[in-house]
Amino acid sequence: MFDVRYSLFFIRFIAYLHEHLNPDHMRTTQSSIFILLLILQASLSAQHPKIQIPATAANRVEHAATKSSLQQTPLSLEIPAGGNPPQANSTVVREPMPFITTPEAMAIKAEKLFHKRYNGDHQATTPSSRVTPVIDESFEANASVDETPSSNTIAVSDDGIIISANNDGVIYFTEAGTKLYEAKWGDFFDDSQLTASFFSPRVLYDPVEERFILVTLHGKTSATSRVIISFSKSKDPVDGWNVYKLPGNPLGDGSWFDFASIGISTNEVYVSGNLIIGTTFNKAVVYQISKTDGYVAGFLDWQFWTDFFNGPVSITPASYGQHGDYGPGIYMVSSAAAGDDAYWFWDLDNDIGVILNLLDIPYQPQAIARRRMLSSQAAMIGWKRVIRAQRMHFTWMVSFILCLTLM
Questions:
Q1: Which end of the chain is less congested by CB atoms within 10 angstroms, N or C?
Q2: What is the pLDDT of residues 114-158, one digit of tens each?
Q3: Are 241 and 233 in contact (CB under 8 A)?
Q4: How many domains, the chain?
Q5: Is the residue at 8 inside a domain?
Q6: Residue range(s) defining the domain that contains residue 318
């Protein structure tokens, strides 16, 4: 509603200018504004600055993790156009999924169960005014045969190409469900050095660079653990991939990399996970990686972060969430260490970051869960107002310039 009112205001304002200003001056103004509009459109194409965090949002802890030295990894292999051919009798290497039995892990599982039960009770009282999704297309995707849990992941390009993957393998579809390619992971990579199990794939589409990024974990021992990151050579994954194999035991302490999450900023991709020793959680880790290097098949610049303040588990990088990227750096979210009463909001403040800051956002999921959840909803409303204000500012500016230009 605000956008409409302001647009009408600008239209009336431009009509006033047209009536009272010299026509020659208006023509000059129109030309200048038209050029400005083109520049503005380019700046708003899809790359956005970070939203500034309100000063009162939370307590800040600076230098909240340890940064590695700069790492460089050469291109490991290229997947050719059309993809490596799937083999008729290809089998999947299976490794049993370790059952993490540390007290911290059990506390996390208990908390997740609590949230599931709470959400189930809460849904029963939710008003029926929600929008009901409409199924546009429906078709069968990846079957989960060889590995459990399936660890499904999916990404869709602007052109409607779908990459759907799970622990068994990967499939490309058109948005109508036509299958373009399918392979088990062993056939997809066709690398004789990758002989252990593949698991926990994650895929996303970079809408600014128009490329897919695919992360696949390999191996459940420190000797075999790899973080395999693949960059599509174009917006069509059928054109092939640039593949890099990063170590899954970056500290050399007997760990292996588990439970990947992935996010992107303007210039970088972030892969987070948990380092496991045997079946025991060791520490969280985040890899910070240059996207550009991967897209051009160059040496991959990257670094990693460990020893996070107070030992959180499963940090998640937060991409822009709509059609675009933001940066420099990225925001990340995690639950606090097991038994604590906070969500933690991490601010990696720059590309190949200089400082990683921590913001402490309290919550309490036990006896007063509903009250805390309402507080969280109020906080989210505040964040949405910040975001909405920025969007309205851009909308009014564009409306103003469009009115001037179209006269």
A1: N
A2: 665 555 554 545 555 567 788 888 888 888 776 667 889 999 999
A3: yes
A4: 1
A5: no
A6: 58-122+140-366
